[in-house]
Amino acid sequence: MTSDLLVVGGGPAGYAAALEGAALGLSTVLVEKSELGGTCLNIGCIPTKLYLGATEAVEELAAARRLRLATGEVSVDLSALKQRKDRFLAATRKAMQAKLEAAGVTLRRGQARFDAEGAVEIVDETGSHILTFERAILAAGSEVVDLPALPADNERILNSTQALELSTPPARLAIVGGGFIGLEMGQIFARLGSEITLVEALDRLASVEDPEVSAELARSFKRAGWTIKLGTKVMGHEKTAEGLTLSLESGESVLADACLVVVGRQPSAKNLNVEAAGAKLTPRGAVEVDAQLKAAPRLYAVGDVNARTMLAHAAEHQARYAVNHLAGKTGHAYVDTGLPSIVYGAPEVVRVGSLAAELKDLGQSVQVSRAPLAANAIAQAHGQTAGFVKVTWSGGRIRGVTAVGHQVSRLATLAEVMVRQGWTERHAEALIFPHPTLDEALLEAVKGKREEV
Amino acid sequence: MTSDLLVVGGGPAGYAAALEGAALGLSTVLVEKSELGGTCLNIGCIPTKLYLGATEAVEELAAARRLRLATGEVSVDLSALKQRKDRFLAATRKAMQAKLEAAGVTLRRGQARFDAEGAVEIVDETGSHILTFERAILAAGSEVVDLPALPADNERILNSTQALELSTPPARLAIVGGGFIGLEMGQIFARLGSEITLVEALDRLASVEDPEVSAELARSFKRAGWTIKLGTKVMGHEKTAEGLTLSLESGESVLADACLVVVGRQPSAKNLNVEAAGAKLTPRGAVEVDAQLKAAPRLYAVGDVNARTMLAHAAEHQARYAVNHLAGKTGHAYVDTGLPSIVYGAPEVVRVGSLAAELKDLGQSVQVSRAPLAANAIAQAHGQTAGFVKVTWSGGRIRGVTAVGHQVSRLATLAEVMVRQGWTERHAEALIFPHPTLDEALLEAVKGKREEV
């Protein structure tokens, strides 16, 4: 069996690639080794958003209670939530499969392994099959990274996938890793009643974000009662009858009923034999790609597997670009100006375009302007006024926006338009910002005094 | 005392006009008869948003409970909420006054009455004073409309201003008027524990919205337990020891502890003697303006008083335009393409640009495309999946967006950009919509099949 386009992986990137290929009239095969939807749908962005959404009342009540406006108690049933999550994911996977079939995509279940430049071996329960192709898109995704000092046992020591399978929250949860996954998971379990201790090896939370954002996150979660230990590593652990004890580099120890290890994700590129297709792995284990996202003459690699930007919407965007490129519909290099990223919860974080430090590293003259959320009526309405919006400028145009605070995810797509279109202050002033909205904090930040950094 | 610019009214329009005038170097006087901030800050958008924000936990708990994910009880203390509201409003007014003073605006308290084309009489506790001016901006705002059958007594029969002064919620609240004020107020009191009966003379709620939006609102509030009576008027009332009884045109009667009358607002133009300045009133009682928002050779009228669009952000936008026009900075007619409007609560409503029916009335060929919120992961996460996004097209470009559902206010400003810039489907597809976000429902609606209407 041969095809115009063979796609390896049925996550956000592979799914988008297959649909785009079929829409362009290519005979398209999609190979998936386990479930459609990949990390994002099954064990990543979607289940965490379902858990955060269902526990929102706990957060809003806490905010109203801090202002002495409300009393009460909200208790969320994790077991029921997990069942709803599983039902929703199954329904979504079914809808994805139906959409692929309706588009004429051939879905093959099995583990792929490249055999030659135009051939891939698929291993399934019936044996081994060779599929040939004109062009292939590798969208194999990523997998959790284990810590040698804390190997996941799916009992006391959990990775993020296992944590999403729990039916009861641990009374004391230690989280190792202060990136966005650790922060979202920490909030979910805090709202479910867990006492959170977070350990991060670096000296700040969410280290890819603006340092001021990291500081605000730490303040916020400490205020919410978390114990946060920065700049120290877990050196070892001991399991006891009551739980486990983590020994930190700092000499401290952390007692917990369970420990969640969320120290990052790595490309799932190891067992694919990409070298047979003419591709190479980077030292980090990602598939190396050029400016057109090509890994080899007939192979593109998109999404987490190229480790360029490990975000579902970036993966989809890369996938659609790659299909259009291989079909000769576009010739230019891949660009993702203004790519937005979001950390959900309370506070939320949004980052679009470039941080000031990134532009300075490129030798550009950079200014920042800002606005505090405390001046915003919607932030005040929710009693969650900590945080700010910060705009990065270069050459008189908006190059980046970052914000931390209550519901700042609202600003992401508008900020992306500002960055992609290179707005000046006049562009923002010409828009009629609806009142009252959180968006007005973005306008205030755009209009704020610009300071050289 | 004379000035380059005299502004009557210190609400959103007058405040923006005075600051803009001072920024342009005009000697500026602002006359306010009561409190800075006008309807929006003191008795309108801001207090209602504070009340909706503080009661959000009740709504989120109800949604999680409908899905059997959560149990509990949240009780919001209206007396504490009212005190917080009053403190926040006072602080905001103080900040506004400080900003006016810092900008060099002269603030005069008193009731204004035009005396001649370039003169206004100000009456305050010390007597009557004449101020002369080169140009004036009238931003006198609006006031509540009473129903003859239900005159407000600030006891059993309340207008919206009085309802925001309550310290305890009525057990049974009848609301007369199903526009956005009635809907937001109804939600506030429902969350505070009131049993709501809503009476609307027209045959649908929120009659300025798309009819499908009205239908979804009715379904949603009925599901939340409201009694809704459409297409019937209140003919009379009787006060009793236990409360009051409303007699409806339909022959039914409604028993309630209190009744809130929210049948609209009218321009506050009656006592200003605008004729002396050369201006005229429309039959509806608004100050008549031309395409440049001019009411007379030396007078502009902006905001609610011209009844063009009774929204704070529209008022501010008109005010800044008028100052720039009178200062010779702009010559073109006033335009407000894509003006957004929002109804807050759960569900929310957003409307930007033109509805399909409005464009059809102009004789244009119109298409609509749509997406249900049920397919959106963020709507699913909050367990609030009713509603939709609907896009209006003409000439292949986006002319309007309307949506109803959980947190659809998030879409307002981005939708405004789409309408103002006349986006095609390609513009939306070129944007990387962050995943998962409610914004993706807007993208799906843009990409949806277009149907002729």
Characterise this structure.
2 copies of one chain form a homodimer. Chain A contains 14 helices and 25 strands. With 453 residues, chain A is of the alpha/beta class. Chain A has 3 domains: 203 residues, FAD/NAD(P)-binding domain, CATH 3.50.50.60; 107 residues, 3-Layer(bba) Sandwich (FAD/NAD(P)-binding domain); 113 residues, Enolase-like, domain 1. In chain A, the strands form 5 sheets. In chain A, strands 1, 2, 4, 5, 6, 7, 18 and 19 form an 8-stranded mixed beta sheet that branches. In chain A, helix 1 runs parallel beside helix 9. The radius of gyration of chain A is 23 Å and the shape is globular. The mean pLDDT of chain A is 97. At the A-B interface, helix 3, helix 4, strand 3, helix 5 and helix 9 of A face helix 3, helix 4, strand 3, helix 5 and helix 9 of B.
Determine the oligomeric state from the structure.
homodimer
At the first level of CATH, what is the class of the largest domain in chain A? Alpha Beta
CATH architecture type of the largest domain in chain A = 3-Layer(bba) Sandwich
Structural domains of chain A: how many: 3
Q: Alpha-carbon distance between the termini of chain A?
A: 58 Å
- What percent of residues of chain A adopt helix (DSSP H or I)? 25-40%
- From the helix content, strand content and strand pairing of chain A, which structural class follows? alpha/beta
Count, helices of chain A: 14
Poorly predicted runs of chain A are none
Strand content of chain A: 25-35%
Whole-angstrom Rg of chain A: 23 Å
Mean pLDDT of chain A: 97
Tell me about the biggest sheet of chain A? 8 strands, mixed
CATH H-level homologous superfamily name of the largest domain in chain A: FAD/NAD(P)-binding domain
